[in-house]
Design a protein that fits this description.
about 20% strand, five-stranded mixed sheet, 7 strands, alpha/beta
């Protein structure tokens, strides 16, 4: 799964916490050929900073715990949620596909 990346901090209990620098990290991943990104659900607002042309070519999975990360990263299954347009808000555990 070389086209999947994740950023965030994980607690000992498996909760995925938000991190900073999402725009720079996503742009670097895009330049490296990564098209699927796993982020903390709390980082959803940071997706608004990305250029529309980049967002349209990438798929974002917003997660709150490691069970969701494993489903996306290792099993290739999207977590339960709704696929939304770029300008829409994402609910916790949701997926944004652009």
């Amino acid at each position: 799964l070389k086209d999947v990346a994740m950023t965030g901090e994980v607690t000992l209990r498996g909760k995925v916490l938000p991190v900073g620098g999402i725009k720079d990290k996503v742009l670097a991943a895009y330049r490296a050929g990564v098209r699927t990104i796993i982020l903390s659900a709390e980082n959803d607002k940071d997706l608004d900073e990305l250029p529309d042309e980049i967002r349209k070519e990438m798929e974002f999975h917003l997660v709150s715990n490691m069970d969701e990360v494993i489903k996306v990263a290792l099993e290739g299954v999207a977590p339960t949620g709704t696929s939304l347009e770029p300008e829409s808000k994402v609910t916790q555990g949701g997926t944004v596909a652009h």
